[in-house]
Amino acid sequence: MSISGPEELEGMRAVGAVVRRVIEAMRKSVRPGVTTAELDAIGDKVMRDDGAQSAPALVYHFPGSSCISLNDEAVHGIPGERILREGDLVKLDVTVEKNGFMADAAVTVAVGAVSEESKRLIACAERAFAKAMLVARAGFRVSEIGRAVEREVRRDGFSVIRDLGGHGIGRTIHEAPRVPNYADPQANQILTEGMVITVEPIIAAGSGRAVLAKDGWTVQTADHKPSAHYEHTIVITKGTPMVLTAA
Tell me: the pLDDT tens digits for 114-168? Predict the structure, then answer.
């Protein structure tokens, strides 16, 4: 969507704040021995207490409130009885609907002590997002976001998962434009003030090739290498973007 007035901006700020609270509540509960279903229930309670609901469940009938993915699972992991173990990487991907507005964010959390590679992977995804913010501004093209992300990821010896990326958001989860994590020449739309998009580096330690798991939802790395995901919903301005899902 493109924000056209103060009421829409306030609606997006409000739903973005819920997303932030959901992620923080789940993040605080990440520890060995907790199941992904238990994390999902924690997030769902925060949504409901805020008068909000799960956007993936609403729009796509996703079998959970939030997408919770482990290790080689990049996105769309289904919450269940899987137990978090020391050394895991857990991706908390939260999309919320409130009063007709939607916002989306994700973070990768280390479970206890993790490998040096995993630490670098988490840090790289966050740095790639920060680099993208330098060009996620009015007058730049969407493809320049992807160029900034992939340059940072490759510099660290990792790969972007090209099948996955960001998107427009606001009134539903996936709106135009598509925001790839590489310099796709077809992503030539010019960013304009008020445009609401997600920027979400989704990266892997291996080749970056992805496959769909047998459950029909989870996307995982084909070589079973670990992945990381970092995402915020932002509003494009002439300068530094407004990050709706950050504190």
Answer: 999 999 999 999 999 999 999 999 999 999 999 999 999 999 999 999 999 999 9
Element housing 133 (H / E): helix 116-133
Q: Which two tokens stand for residue 158?
A: 């990792």
102-120 b/e with 16+ CB inside 10 Å = b? bbbbbbbbbbeebeeebee
pTM over 0.85: yes
Q: 6-243: what fold?
A: Creatine Amidinohydrolase (3.90.230)
Encode pLDDT of 195-229 as tens digits.
999 999 999 999 999 999 999 999 999 999 999 99
Q: How far is CA 163 from the centre of its chain?
A: 14
Q: Are 153 and 182 in contact (CB under 8 A)?
A: no
Distance, CA of 99 to CA of 180 (rounded, Å): 28
Buried b or exposed e, range 207-241, using 16+ CB within 10 angstroms: ebebeeeeeebbbbbeeebbbbbbbbbbbbbeeeb
Report the candidate in 62, 72, 139, 162 with the shortest Cα–Cα distance to residue 104: 62
All residues at 6 or more sequence positions from 49 whose CB lies less than 8 Å from its CB, including other chains? none
Nearest CA among 19, 81, 30 for reference residue 54? 19
> How many alpha carbons fall within 13 Å on the CB side of residue 180?
17
For residues 37 and 79, the answer to whether their CB atoms sit within 8 Å is: yes
